[in-house]
Amino acid sequence: MNPSLHHIPRSSWWRRRIVDPLARQLTQGLSPERLALALAIGGVVAVNPFLGTTTVACFAAGVALRLNQPALQIANLLGAPLQLVLLVPWVRAGEWLYRADPMPLNPALLVEQFVAAPSQFLERFGTSGVHAATAWLIATPLLGAALYFALRPLLRALSNQLARSRALAPS
């Protein structure tokens, strides 16, 4: 077992669903740089302003860029709460970019209108989606680079620790 991970209980959700799968990727030959890239792209895709699209978008990005699918989906899982938190800021940033009047964003009203008449909803709020997508697309390179350069040294250190612990393990 890796000494740096010793303080995380083996049975914890974090350990079983995040730490162990990422460590396995590193011990199975994935470089820390490729893992950081997959996590960064998965994280960026995970916060896109279109709910319900992230799993398929992460899969497509993984196929197109030949990235590690488990890492993309782990980043997607971790980014899900942020997607909801960032939805309104993406819309507002897009409105600012387009110099558009702010659209009233009452979640209960939006759901009610979507359920009642999806086509009218898309017609009325479609420009808000364009605004949000534009803001997200502009932020994507910066957000992706920040995630990549923050994760890369951490994953290199983890990879080195895993290699040391494997070297010390009795054969």
How would you describe this protein?
It is a single chain. The chain is mostly helical and 171 residues long. The protein is 78% helix and 0% strand. It contains six helices and no strands. The protein has helices at residues 13-27, 32-46, 54-65, 69-98, 107-116, 118-168. Helix 2 (32-46) runs antiparallel to helix 3 (54-65) and helix 3 (54-65) packs across helix 4 (69-98). The longest helix is centred in the C-terminal third of the chain and has 51 residues, at 118-168.
Question: Which helices and strands appear, and what pairs or packs with what?
Answer:
Layout: H1 13-27, H2 32-46, H3 54-65, H4 69-98, H5 107-116, H6 118-168
Helix pairs in contact: 2-3, 2-4, 2-6, 3-4, 4-6, 5-6
Summary?
With 171 residues, this protein is mostly helical. Helix content is 78%, strand content 0%. Helix 3 packs across helix 4 (69-98) and helix 4 packs across helix 6 (118-168).
Features:
single chain; 171 residues; mainly alpha
Mean pLDDT: 90
Shape: elongated
Q: Determine Rg (CA atoms, Å).
A: 20 Å
Helix share bin: over 70%
Structural class: mainly alpha
Count the DSSP helices: 6
Distance between termini? Answer: 14 Å
| Overall number of strands | 0
Give the low-pLDDT segments: none
**Largest beta-sheet details:** none
Task: Give the SSE order as H and E letters.
Answer: HHHHHH
Q: How much of the sequence is in beta strands?
A: under 5%
